[in-house]
Amino acid sequence: MTVQDIGQVSVQALRASLLVTAARTAHAGMFSAGPVAAALAATAIQVGRWLDLLAVLGLLARYPTAVRAYACQPQLVAAPATGARPLDEVSPSELWAAVVTAQLQTGKASASQIAAFLDTRTSRVDRVDLLLRLAALAACGRLWACTDDATRLRPTDIGWTAVPTTSPAP
Q1: Beta bridge partner(s), residue 31
Q2: DSSP string of 25-87?
Q3: Inter-axis angle of helices 11-24 and 127-139, to 10 degrees?
Q4: How far is CA 119 from CA 23, 79, 83, 87, 95, in A?
Q5: Cα(48)–Cα(126) distance, integer angstroms
Q6: Helical (H) or strand (E) element with 159
Q7: Mind listing the pLDDT tens digit for each residue in 95-139?
Q8: Cys bridge to 46: 6, 22, 84, 152, which one at CB 3.0-4.6 A?
């Protein structure tokens, strides 16, 4: 089996991996990184980073058990916004340009600032899908997530910064 970079997995597959893994578990919807990594054919280390970041963002609940356990939160379980612009149709270079442009003034950009560059007159990108993608890019080292566990910032208030030595995936 070929292992892929989590930053190159489609947003649809990222979301599905979490929902299917949670539905298949016998532990009240709680799951660990292993089954998600297997579903995505990604490394457990990247998936673990991704899940931890999703927990900080409030999309997952994290439980301190012998093996880190996670559970999907309501906003992740909800269907993507009707009529939303599919994030998988946004090219890596367009997403990268949105991140870099949004961070120009302060050095970091919120998800809502990035989304403003991706929204069109006729549709908006799904905000949860955008957080899934940004967190995946942070998990594989292409973005820095400027999080603050102490203040419990809303997901749109967390800053994202492009790592200067990287570029978007092809």
Answers
A1: 70
A2: -SSTT-B-HHHHHHHHTB-HHHHHHHHHHHHHHTSEEEE-SSS-EEEE-HHHHSPPPTTPBPG
A3: 90
A4: 32, 19, 12, 10, 11
A5: 23
A6: strand 159-162
A7: 999 999 999 988 888 899 999 999 999 999 999 999 999 999 999
A8: 6
Is 22 within 8 Å of 29 (Cβ atoms)? yes
User: Are the C-beta atoms of 138 and 144 separated by less than 8 Å?
Assistant: yes
| CA 71 to chain centroid | 15
Which one-letter amino acid corresponds to residue 115? A
Q: For the purposes of burial, counting CB atoms within 10 Å of the CB of 86, is it exposed (0-12), middle (13-18) or buried (19 or more)?
A: middle
Tokens 């892929």 identify what position? 4
Question: Which amino acid, one-letter code, is at 125?
Answer: V
* Weakest mean pLDDT among 4-18, 38-52, 141-155: 141-155
In DSSP notation, 88-122 reads GGS-HHHHHHHHHHHTTTTS-B-HHHHHHHH--SS
pLDDT value of residue 66: 78
Partner residues linked to 146 by β-bridges: 159
- Compute the distance between CA of residue 167 and CA of residue 22 in angstroms, rounded to an integer: 33
